[in-house]
């Protein structure tokens, strides 16, 4: 299964409400057959610009990252569900597959045979 | 064969020696060494260019004829070495340059983000490549990044904009005091 990352921006709420929101989000994920790897809290910050969502203008927000493995088919359904949640300001699902490192970065082109020919 | 030898007037001395040794029926090694020495001397002279006026072809032809005679008489590998180009003998040319890797080679310089992963979450890093006044992404001629990294930075900045991580129109005030990586001077 490919690996995804859900970058969730939630409304600035009290701790128990944020916890409840996270709980139901992860439960939704697990119901749809995703395997949740981990959850990171990036803190409550000032939003870079004011976001209008669910008839509210948000200035501050809580940032969370949820790492999970899931089938590609559930992503659209999941996003649809999160858009309907009134406590979520902006949900984004990204692919997070580890890329294989391709040799030396920022080097000259490998096939520089012009110098060798005399 | 003797007539063939006489036709090469070029190497009078060495041929004279040869003929004399043949007639005498002398020791093989004796006349061989002297003939080889003189032959080599002649070759060196030719290489230095003192016999330039004579046609090179004639010289080569005469050398080849000498080779032929030497090989016929069971000549050693040594005297055939300089011209035959036999692969099983290692050529030792003192004048030619040695093949080696460039000793003055500089280590390869990469761009500043050479081994650093670029992420949309790392807003501070992304903000370093953005104008503080307008929030516009700097071009390659200003950032000095290589193609791959410039593209990664550009994509990450756009991603951060759309996801609500980074501002579009300005640079976050907390990151204003960061060191200036880009090749641009801001008016105070």
Automatic annotation (TrEMBL), chain A:
CDD domains: bS6_mito (cd15465)
Gene3D superfamilies: 3.30.70.60
GO molecular function: small ribosomal subunit rRNA binding; structural constituent of ribosome
Transmembrane annotation, as ranges: none
Keyword Cell membrane: no
Region feature Disordered, mapped onto this chain: 94-118
Superkingdom to which the source organism belongs: Eukaryota
UniProt record, GO biological process: translation
Alphabetic keyword roster: Ribonucleoprotein, Ribosomal protein
GO cellular component, one term: mitochondrial small ribosomal subunit
Family, per entry: Belongs to the bacterial ribosomal protein bS6 family.
Name under which the protein is recorded: Small ribosomal subunit protein bS6m
Species per Swiss-Prot/TrEMBL record: Salvelinus namaycush
Organism lineage string: Eukaryota, Metazoa, Chordata, Craniata, Vertebrata
Automatic annotation (TrEMBL), chain B:
Keyword line: Mitochondrion, Ribonucleoprotein, Ribosomal protein, Transit peptide
GO molecular function: small ribosomal subunit rRNA binding; structural constituent of ribosome
Subcellular location, record wording: Mitochondrion
GO biological-process terms attached to the record: mitochondrial translation
Cellular component GO terms held in the UniProt record: mitochondrial inner membrane; mitochondrial small ribosomal subunit
SUPFAM superfamilies recorded: Ribosomal protein S18
Coiled-coil annotated spans: none
Family: Belongs to the bacterial ribosomal protein bS18 family.
Protein name from the UniProt record: Small ribosomal subunit protein bS18m
Organism: Salvelinus namaycush (Lake trout)
Lineage, top ranks: Eukaryota, Metazoa, Chordata, Craniata, Vertebrata
Gene encoding the protein: mrps18c
């Amino acid at each position: 299964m490919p690996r995804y990352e859900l970058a969730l921006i939630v409304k600035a709420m009290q701790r128990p409400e944020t916890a409840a929101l996270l709980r139901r989000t992860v439960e939704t994920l697990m119901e749809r057959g995703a395997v949740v790897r981990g959850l990171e809290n990036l803190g409550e910050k000032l939003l870079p610009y004011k976001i209008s969502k669910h008839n509210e203008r948000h200035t501050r927000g809580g940032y969370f990252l949820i790492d999970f493995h899931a089938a590609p088919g559930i992503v659209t359904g999941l996003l649809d569900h999160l858009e309907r949640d009134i406590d979520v300001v902006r949900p984004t699902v990204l692919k997070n597959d580890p890329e294989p490192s391709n040799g030396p970065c920022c080097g000259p082109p490998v096939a520089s045979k012009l110098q060798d020919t005399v | 064969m003797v007539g063939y030898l006489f036709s090469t007037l070029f190497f009078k001395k060495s041929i004279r020696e040869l003929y004399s040794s043949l007639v005498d029926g002398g020791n093989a090694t004796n006349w061989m060494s002297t003939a080889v020495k003189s032959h080599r001397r002649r070759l060196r002279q030719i290489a230095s260019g003192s016999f330039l006026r004579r046609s090179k072809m004639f010289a080569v032809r005469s050398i080849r004829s000498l080779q032929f005679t030497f090989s016929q008489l069971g000549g050693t590998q040594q005297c055939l070495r300089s011209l035959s180009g036999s692969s099983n003998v290692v050529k030792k040319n003192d004048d030619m340059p040695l093949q080696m890797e460039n000793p003055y080679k500089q280590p390869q310089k990469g761009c500043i983000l050479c081994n650093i992963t670029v992420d949309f979450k790392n807003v501070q890093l992304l903000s370093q490549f953005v104008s503080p006044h307008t929030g516009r992404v700097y071009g390659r001629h200003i950032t000095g990044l290589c193609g791959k990294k410039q593209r990664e930075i550009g994509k990450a900045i756009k991603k951060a904009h759309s996801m609500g991580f980074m501002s579009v129109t300005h640079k976050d005030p907390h990151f204003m005091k960061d060191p200036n990586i880009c090749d641009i001077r801001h008016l105070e």
